[in-house]
């Protein structure tokens, strides 16, 4: 049986299979909030279910599908590579495609970043950055920011500033120091003993879409260098055009010592991560022939991943998606900005490029305050679900809460949205934000949805 026949015959078993063999709690979550759809097709910014309904994807696989799903140029490139019958992962060899992609990445990276290391994910690039910075400086401490997210493997988790992901997995790696984001005084204090290898940060924190003050990153870079440490920019989500520039650090004219990327580089097909860094760092880590393989990743330079990355960069450039991201993102923010003054629960709309957040806050009027407190008592951050659930159920828009326990809704759509897509999104957001301000009725509507789903799960239907 070929794979298409298998999908055709068993296409509706995905939830049952995951419930039995994989993460059953994820299945329960999706069924509880009504996100349990059987998608059968994906194209560009859209998902299609078995009934032919079209959904606008503002989640884009957590930022993976920057160029949209199943882009024909990337599909054709991968077919061409498979047809070429190239030698792959010889290991005692150096491959052409990895060299070509590295050349391209250096060309689009901030000046001075001249060496590339390939891995399979963003987490792996963070692990490499931690190891490289320790070896290059001869120091062990890593400074990271509260609220930051860098991955879930042991090293990257040690640098992740969210206790939700750390609980029960300790003890984590020692010598990791947490400081508040956007706090230069705290950074200088952490660096002052001159025993820090690196300061790692997202230029814009993905969990919450928190933007730094304009002076923060330039002054942080200066502090890091003054005290003999390295600056690691985690651009796994913010990079490759997401914020309207190739790299988010470019908004503040900052050149890090190490820059990490992944997600969008894959084109949505083959996992790939990359680290670009200054040449002296690389040369210090790989300083002798017997250290040529002191750090690596077995599948990191596989031909399909390299081809996917190269083709993705070609699409970003040929379709002018970096500039489009900046323009479309600003259009979305401008179109929604008036809601802040009209609805008291909506505190702020912020973002850069196609990375946009709607932050909600406790209202002042009594009826809405009661509704808010009821939701927060049930589950911190639940008000955000009053936005994401109806966006999906009524408007067929897939979105996400910006982080655990946050009343922030986040949009990280493909960079290819059309004017019609933006209108679809804006009108839907206006509708659900207005509806969320109906007070107790809105609370009980959501409660009924969640209760009905929970009962259905309990009954096994």
What does this structure look like?
With 461 residues, the chain is an alpha/beta fold. It folds into 2 domains: 33-67 and 321-459, Aspartate Aminotransferase, domain 1 (Alpha-Beta Complex), CATH 3.90.1150.10; 72-318, Type I PLP-dependent aspartate aminotransferase-like (Major domain) (Aspartate Aminotransferase, domain 2), CATH 3.40.640.10. Helix content is 44%, strand content 14%. It has helices spanning 3-10, 14-21, 24-32, 60-63, 72-83, 96-108, 122-137, 154-158, 163-166, 184-191, 216-226, 279-285, 303-318, 321-336, 339-342, 366-378, 385-395, 419-436, 440-459, and strands at 39-43, 46-49, 54-57, 115-119, 141-145, 176-179, 196-201, 230-234, 258-261, 273-277, 346-351, 356-360, 397-398, 400-401, 408-411. The strands form 3 sheets. The chain has a 7-stranded mixed beta sheet, with helices on both faces. Strands 1-2-3-13 form a 4-stranded mixed beta sheet. A hairpin with a 2-residue loop joins β1 and β2 (46-49). α6 (96-108) runs parallel beside α13 (303-318) and α14 runs parallel beside α18. The protein is globular, with a radius of gyration of 23 Å. The model has no long low-confidence stretch (mean pLDDT 94).
């Amino acid at each position: 049986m070929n794979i298409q026949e298998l999908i055709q015959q068993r296409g509706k078993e995905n939830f049952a299979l995951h419930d039995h063999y994989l993460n059953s709690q994820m299945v329960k979550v999706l069924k509880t909030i009504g996100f349990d759809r059987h998608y059968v097709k994906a194209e560009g910014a859209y998902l299609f279910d078995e009934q032919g309904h079209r959904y606008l994807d503002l989640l884009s696989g957590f930022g993976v599908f920057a160029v949209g799903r199943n882009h024909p140029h990337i599909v054709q490139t991968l077919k061409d590579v498979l047809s070429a019958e190239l030698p792959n992962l010889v290991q005692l060899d150096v491959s052409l495609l990895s060299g070509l992609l590295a050349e391209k990445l250096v060309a689009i990276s901030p000046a001075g970043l001249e060496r590339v290391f390939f891995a399979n994910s963003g987490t792996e690039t963070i692990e490499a950055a931690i190891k490289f910075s320790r070896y290059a400086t001869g120091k062990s401490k890593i400074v990271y920011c509260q609220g930051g997210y860098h991955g879930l493997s042991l090293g990257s988790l040690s640098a992740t500033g969210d206790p939700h992901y750390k609980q029960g997995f300790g003890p984590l790696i020692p010598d990791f120091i947490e400081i508040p984001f956007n706090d230069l005084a705290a950074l200088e204090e952490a660096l002052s003993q001159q025993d820090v290898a690196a300061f790692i940060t997202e230029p814009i924190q993905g969990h919450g879409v928190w933007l730094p003050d304009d002076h923060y990153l330039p002054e942080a870079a200066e502090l890091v260098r003054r005290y003999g440490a390295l600056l690691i920019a985690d651009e796994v989500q913010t990079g490759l055009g997401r914020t309207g520039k190739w790299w988010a650090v470019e908004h503040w004219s900052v050149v890090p010592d190490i820059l990490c990327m992944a997600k969008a580089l894959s084109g949505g097909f083959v996992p790939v991560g990359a680290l670009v860094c200054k040449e002296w760092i690389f040369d210090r880590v790989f300083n002798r022939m017997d250290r040529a393989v002191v750090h690596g990743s077995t599948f990191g330079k596989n031909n399909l991943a390299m081809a996917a990355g190269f083709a993705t960069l070609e699409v970003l450039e040929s379709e002018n998606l970096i500039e489009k991201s900046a323009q479309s993102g600003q259009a979305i923010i401008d179109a929604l900005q008036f809601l802040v003054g009209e609805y008291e629960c909506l505190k702020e709309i912020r973002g850069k490029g196609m990375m946009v957040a709607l932050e909600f806050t406790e209202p002042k009027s009594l009826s809405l305050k009661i509704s808010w407190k009821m939701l927060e008592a049930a589950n911190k951050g639940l008000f955000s679900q009053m936005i994401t659930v109806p966006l999906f159920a009524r408007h067929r828009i897939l979105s996400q809460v910006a982080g655990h326990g946050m009343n922030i809704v986040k949009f990280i759509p493909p960079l290819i949205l059309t004017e019609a897509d933006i209108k679809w999104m804006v009108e839907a957001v206006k509708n659900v934000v207005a509806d969320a301000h109906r007070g107790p009725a809105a609370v009980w509507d959501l409660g009924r949805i969640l209760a009905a789903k929970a009962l259905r799960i309990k009954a096994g239907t």
